[in-house]
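Tutorial, part two.
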Amino acid sequence: MQKLNIVGGGLAGAEAAWQAANRGIEVNLYEMRGPNRTTAAHQTDKIAELVCSNSFRNDDPASAIGLLHAEMRKLNSLIIKAADSTQVPAGSALAMDRDLFADMVGSALEEHPKINIIREEIDVISTEGKWIIATGPLTSDALSTKIMEITGEDKLAFFDAIAPIVYKETIDFDIAWFQSRYDKVGPGGDGKDYINCPLNKEQYNNFVDALLSGEKTEFKEWEKDTPYFNGCLPIEVMAERGRETLRFGPMKPVGLTNPHAPGEKAYAVLQLRQDNLLGTLYNMVGFQTKLKYGLQKEIFSSLPGLENAEFARLGGLHRNTFINSPKLLGSKLELKIQPNVRFAGQITGVEGYVESAAMGLLAGIFAAHEMHNSTVNIPPADTAIGSLLMHLTYGAESSTFQPMNINFGLVPPLEEKIRSKKDRYKALSDRALKSLSDWIKE
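Running the prediction step on this input gives:
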């Protein structure tokens, strides 16, 4: 039997390789990063390195992303298994130690008898053999050019931004305190999973002024027309949209009580989330930025509680790349014009770690069945993974297609009307998990 070639060792490529190999397919997994080559965003050459947040977001199955977690667990997802095994406290979110997570995924693939990891750049799309392109946000220029040539597209890229990480021991806990919003207890947590730094009105306004006036990273000529994705805007871009934007976004002060100032309500709050199992590193939630490094230290160290903060990593930009999937892909992620090639992960136009891995999961399953000359239906539309697939392949309008996170707006509504949003989401989740179980049996 011929081998399946998968390009890209991120979450989608790793998941696709795992799913196909577990179905008896020999897999070549190509990753261009190695000891002598990296990218602008990666810190290591590890398979499945998390380059932005260390969180998979809400793990409650009554939320859309939590439902996707639950569905992927049912489908033996390597990515979710590794996240569960390397989890750190994060309120209701599923967050993990990023190094242990990548190590676990990498080891599982390296030890699999059907998977061969090859450290080599692929810069062509072959008409021979079976391929999955899962190169994600950092697709090489050469491969991006080839994709544009084949598909006739003239633009594939936009920008994501990375948030800084702070050493916990350098945070001033005479000012900061531990608490999740509304004391919510999530998986592995105790309701005190975030570090909170309060700002009064003057401090907040000074911070916004500094963001607006701070010198930003200069774009290269070819980057200047690249748009941002709204789900990962740099904090200074959010500030440009209105002085109060941050207070109603990542710095909202709701659901928190400052033990250092009982009865005094903060005007805004910076939250930091645990980034590693040891609990020594915390990332600044929502503080992705394109500020220059020197200014980042100056501006972020002006925030209450961070006056003496030391940064394990400062923020930065990385390019994202995606194709117009509703126009270009068939129902099983195959390229219409060249069906021996599938796409998976962020390059398909999903946004988020888990959504990317989910499309890798499906691409691996579809490729394996095709190579075994067997048939498999697409997952039902009322599941999270099925609704996301169908949004990509024909549910979205191709002329206005933009990256999408999973949300309940993608699934068909319930037949019965349920007024309570909480109860409605629970019913949608229950329906989805039953539908997925039936699909798995088939």
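The chain has a mean pLDDT of 90. In part three we will examine how such features are distributed along the chain.
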